[in-house]
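User: Predict Signal transduction histidine kinase internal region domain-containing protein's structure from this.
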Amino acid sequence: MRAARQKLYWKFQIIAWCAWVTNETLLYINLFGWKWEWMISAVLNVIFGISITHYYRYLNEKHQWLNRKSSFVIRTQVIAIGGIAFLLTLFNIFIDHFILQTNFQMYLNAFYLLQVFFNFSKPVSIWILIYYFYQNSQKQLVMQRKNDQLELTVQESEGRILRAQMNPHFVFNALNSIKALILENPKKARESINNLSKLLRSSLLTERKKTIPLSEEIETIVEYLELEKIRYEERLTYSIEIQDACKNIQVPPMLIQTLVENGIKHGISQTIAGGTIQIKAVCKENHAEISVQNPGKLNEDILEDDKGVGLENSKFRLKLLFGDKAEISLHQLPNEKVEALITIPNINQEKL
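Assistant:
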């Protein structure tokens, strides 16, 4: 990036000074006729103009003049314009006397000297204004990039914190279930420990990712549900219907698992008969709809409880990743069922 800016700077220097000096040379040729000395004068002016403005750029970057107060910046630029124009005036008087062999006495005229001075003030003013606005735009761009990077870092940190809040729930539940199973059914307890091990490994790996394929999230959910079936036995059943087209769409890790956990907490555990957790995923043209259904009634207690580390955190995680393109909503369905519906952009691994 820096090399590209340097290349652009030198192109601007050479083209701008060559264009200005060419214009001045053509005016002199039109007034006084052709002389080879005009070409020598033009080349020397290009070299001197580039050198003096480049030195100004060096001093500016060394002392960071453009990063100071506005009054200082304005004063410095005015002085720079006057100083550079004055040096160019002296330089051209020298060239005219020793190379063009013109009458040196004519330059003792103050009016003519002022004319030459203001003539050179024009390209110098244009050069410094362009340089100032370019540097200022670059400064704003760097600041914006830093702000964007800071915002992204904050969002990633918030996402990790939110996921860390969600993970302990199912771990504690699973450990309690296995503890109760050890004496009753050691074989089943070993299988459950194996499921918990897979679940924890999956959880640790997904902590490092913003999104994972839906198929991986479903694997984690199945392991979680199998552990919960130890505790609820025949009271808990589940069904999963995922379209093949949806298996690779990207979802935040543990997001759907959290909704399943809420379904068990507010649905299965609240009734003696228990019920079924139903998970469905349907892919449409630009988005996917993922549904988690559980038995129960949607009431204020559930909504208030979900405002802790459940539903609100899930909404926030989606907002961080997808903005307004994703949402979660709760619905009361017939036959005393509650549905958590996730609408998410249809983004798969190949598109990321």
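The chain has two domains: 2-148, 182-351.
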